[in-house]
Amino acid sequence: MKRECFMCQGGVERVGSRRWSKKVWFLRIGVAVLLLLAMGLASEKMLFSWAAEVDSEKTATEAPLEERFQQAVTWLASSHRQGRGPGTQGIDEAAEWVATQLTGIGLQTSVGGVGPFQPFKMTLDAKLGPLADNRAELVGPAGDDGLPQIIPLVLGKDFTPLAAGGSGAFDLPLVFAGYGITAPAEHYDDYAPLTKAGAASMAKSSAAIMLRQEPQKDDPHSVFDGNQASQHAALSRKVANASEHEAGAVIFCNLSSSDEAEALMAFTRAGDGSEQRTMPVLQIQRAIIDPLIAKVMGRDLATIEKSIDDSLTPQSAALTGWSIRGRVAIERTESEAKNVLAILPGLGKAKDRQPVSEPAATAGESLETVILGAHYDHLGFGGVHSAAPGEHAIHHGADDNASGTAMLVEVARLLKEEGPFPRTILFIAFSGEERGLLGSAFYTANAAIPLAETVAMVNLDMVGRLDADKMIVHGTGTGSGFDAMIDRLVGVHHFEGAKEPGGFGPSDHSSFYAKKIPVLHLFTGSHSDYHRPTDTADKINYDGMVRITRLVADIVRELATAPDRPEYIEVASKQFAGGGGDRPYFGSIPDFGKPGKGYAITGATKDSPAALGGLKGGDVIVRLGASAIAGLEDFDSALRKHKAGEAVPVIVLRDGAEVTVEVILGSPR
What we know:
The chain has 15 helices and 26 strands. Helices cover 26% and strands 22% of the residues.
């Protein structure tokens, strides 16, 4: 099928829609008029009454805008865009579409980078390297012949490496770590038997064999959420827990009661490798692990599983004399992602108020800038971030965030028609948001216009499901005057406003607030289609998008014309990472633009436990309590093992040296 840009070539992909173009609309009206006149029944009153009824009370300017929204979201969320996943042709097409729209509006696109694009590198999903470089064998005590027992493992038949782990050679002793779970609230810890009093854990630098799922998985009265899978059953959580215990490798083994007792998992089943761990993560067939366990521990796996289920007592033990050696090769390919930038130059401070010709400071001119942003990427065919795990299907991302992308374009169109304004307006469509705010983190580290000149950032993410006029606005406490402005404008546009003062949240505005820039984030609320294949264009409230567009344009216009720039306000707000739900509150701000071993932070929220404990921007957390921290996932897992009010030692790397601080954890938020 030929793929066309509907704005460029007239083609449009529609889902269950028969919306007519203007030409067809007026042609049908004309035909109707002629028929009515021919029949002697036409009159001006009848004609205009009929047209008004069909228009369904929409104004002349709103109808085309609503139609543009439906076309844009339908095109962006089409199956042809492949869920706008990283590395797909679809996301490149979406980037070109945004650039074409912003250029066509008349905005300047020579802001920095390559034309309208600001390229950056993104690591795509890992893939298995050469077969010859992926090998493993189990090594046991010497037999009667004096030679060690060797059990060779066949790749794809006996074992498989998993993308969640790292690459390299290994030769590690084996331990059996039960289900690989540490759950203080449930009074269960599979690693406890591996730690002898006064001695280091036997799991440290060992390959930990662990069962999938969790104890008492079929018991409706189990402490692990009954017969529903709890958070501890997640493979990624088990890998993080093993990393916290400084295991050298993870080896998964299927349960005997599993319907997949002999199945090897898909390569990305335990994670896509975005954590970039160094320890290998493997799965070995149960038929190979079971006799080894029985030989060393005197009981087979089925007996051990039943014992754990009956008593909820861990059965972990060292597998004395046995080890695993081999090599894993996982290739992580990089792809060039890109933000899309376009600028509406401001009048500046010069007396003649002439537009700034280029986004570079000149005498008498001001680069004070308001940023309007939205991410255009989504999940592609699913993956670890999908709310439908294991389902390989296009995740259309109509609300998240084709809606915000389309609105970015339309607000730009409105403001270009009205401008220029005293301040410059920079429009940015971010990529990599779904992978951890990568695009916005890259921009704030490589800003096209100095961050010191950025007076505010407004973010659009999931603005397509307006329901009962409820508009949620985050960041109302982050800038002076924001609260009153939002109250006033939300009222003018007849929305029911719900305000959150904090500036951190799981979207691109967080990258800017971390740099002490006032932010606002508009959002129409979550829903059951979030991060699922069912987030499709037919479920969008297009009339609601039209109304929100007017609100956003008013907000950006006011920020671009106000005599004084808003002052940044540090808000003691809900935490973005390391807090929320059942986790104690910590208050750290992740630095997604600083990969590497440990959990890097850009700072700590005001009056948070982290701030009061002395953590600073640039710190890299490498240990929380007894847990080693290799990344954000480990930090999240480790934090859940503690309670509010507990004083926890935290080791950070600061300026190349280890520094220990004490953090008193707060209540969950």
